[in-house]
Amino acid sequence: MKVKNLGFALWFIASSCLAELKTPAVFSDGMVFQRDHEVAVWGWADPGHEVSVYFVGAEKKAKAGADGRFMVRLNKMKASADPQTLVIKSGDDSVEIKNVLIGEVWLCSGQSNMLWPVEKSMNFDQEKASAHYPEIRMFLTDLKANIKPQDDCTGSWKMCTPQTVGDFSAVAYFFGREIHSELGVPVGLIRSAWGGTRIEAWSPMSSLEQFPGVMRSKELQDKRAETYTEEKAATKYAVDLKKWEMRSEKARAAGQKLPRKPRKPVHPHSNQNYPANLYNAMIHPLVPYSMRGAIWYQGEANAHSAEQAILYRDLLENLVNEWREVWDEKFPFYAVQLVNYRNPQVKPVEDTGWAFIRESFLRFHKEVPNVGIAVGIDVGDANDIHPKDKQTIGYRLAQQALKKTYGHQVVADGPLYASYRIDGNKMVISFDGIGSGLVEQDGKPLRRFAIAGADQQFVEAQAVIVGETVFVSSEKVATPVAVRYAWADNPVGCNLFNAAGFPASPFRTDRWPSSAE
Fold first, then answer.
1. Which of these, 306, 330, 321, lies nearest to 487 by C-alpha position?
2. Comparing C-alpha atoms, which of 303, 142, 147, 312 is closest to residue 221?
3. Topology of the domain covering 19-193
4. Cβ contact 298:282 at 8 Å
5. Which tens digit of pLDDT belongs to each residue from 313-372?
6. Nearest alpha carbon to residue 494 among 484, 504, 502, 481
7. Distance (Å, whole) CA 98 – CA 28
8. Cβ neighbours around 432 below 10 Å, total
């Protein structure tokens, strides 16, 4: 009898400690499901227990595994702006997620220019006043880093209103607003971005082992982790902060720009730039949330040298391939080519990390399936790495999606270098993406073209539009070999566009070694 009572007591204790029925943070009130896709719904329940999922009159069942995780896939659904309730039940437990719409879902990731909010962007008062879009929703992830893949993140869905839009990612919002306007369906935007972060942090660790430079950087951080103590880090931070305060005081007195404030110390393995840390904490928890595709604004942190910038093309393809693999879908991916920034161009050609990383974006656009880039060489700010015109960037990203993903008959690209031929003392440049024709955007002669002979010495060139090509020449170069266009951090005045108002991407016809490497 005592044995039976003991068994009952143990059963009662075990039963009272069973797992709570729960879903990931992204499954919460105000969410948006992807239309015309089988929609994954997952979460955690008591191991081995049956889970029922109810949505718009349909029921799906699954059994929680040994780890408590369950998943069902809802049948494909048409877009709907009628708020619905998702109900999940297991035993006596239930979860209700309300105000669910069905439409288009996009993942919006990158560094600070993707994180940059509407409230700090151009024309905020007007944008705020007009932000009555209850069918546009944004999931705002909290900033988290982790050395191991996580099952969940933290964040919440917000409906677009004048009161909430200020916190939205500006690029994502202006992208989503254009998609919503053109398609007439709800739009869900998942903002998962963190300022000042490198692409390696957003990529799975196993995929980075093919890049020796990334692995060397990881090894250095691992060595720092071995000797890291909170006490030493706090002492150093206090010293750095005091120095910063003194320099800031002098800068204010001289009317100069304040130096960057030192960051609070974190363990190297908790740093947001440790390889894979942001993938683990801010991307992996979202898999396999059903979505149409992804937009990306990142690269500034990988443009500190020409070597890094050239490698970026392969790192970006790697990220896209890995994300597509974990989602098991070759979804579209549209990226922002870095805009113009820093001191205006002086020399005919200025080899910089920013010039080479733009080429990496261009090569990525041409060489990787189902991707595209938005060129913003005309909307940057010489003095601010965060230009305020996010409307233009969002619009151009949306045109990529409207044409290539949704099949709309729109112009989505500016002129993109395709090929060249030599005609006497001229180089004739051909382009893709010319739309209804090439134009000088301001009506003035083309600027920022440079030409070189075999000596690899570039000089300023004359460039003229001839039909669907550009003829480039210089009296100083009798036998031309190479042409570059807008090849600098900030090629102010570069004015080759197409008639639809899209700028040409910077490019080079040569593959000569960089003087900046």
1. 306
2. 147
3. Immunoglobulin-like (2.60.40)
4. no
5. 999 999 999 999 999 999 999 999 999 999 999 999 999 999 999 999 999 999 999 999
6. 504
7. 7
8. 13
Q: Cβ neighbours of residue 216 under 8 Å, at least 6 residues apart?
A: none
3-state SS assignment for residue 418: strand
What would the two tokens of residue 354 be? 């920013």
CA angle 458, 461, 465 (to 5 degrees): 140
Helix, strand and coil percent figures for the chain, each rounded to 5:
30, 30, 40
pTM as predicted: 0.94
Give CA separation, 325 vs 112, 214, 256, 320, in Å.
Answer: 26, 21, 48, 9
Torsion angle in degrees (nearest 10) through CA of 378, 384, 390, 394: 70
Tokens of 3: 């044995």
**pLDDT tens digits for range 433-485:** 999 999 999 999 999 999 999 999 999 999 999 999 999 999 999 999 999 99
Q: How many Å is the Cα radius of gyration of the chain?
A: 26
H-only helix segments in 254-352: 277-278, 306-327
Tell me how long the chain is.
517
Rounded Cα–Cα distance for residues 12 and 7 (Å): 9
Q: Are 198 and 149 in contact (CB under 8 A)?
A: no
Distances in Å between the Cα of 178 and the Cα atoms of 167, 395, 426 are: 18, 7, 42
Name the residue type at position 105.
V
The one-letter code for the residue type at 299 is G
DSSP secondary structure of 441-486: TTSSPP-SEEEE-TT---EE-EEEEETTEEEEE-TT-SS--EEEES
Specify the amino acid at residue 83.
P
Nearest to 447 by CA among 384, 412, 490: 490
Map out the domains of the chain as residue ranges: 19-193, 416-508
Q: What three-state secondary structure class fits 96?
A: strand
Q: What is the DSSP letter of 381?
A: B
Nearest to 284 by CA among 380, 385, 201: 201
Identity at 41, one-letter amino acid code: V
Of 196, 214, 191, the C-alpha closest to 204 is: 214
Give the span between the Cα atoms of 249 and 460, in whole angstroms. 43
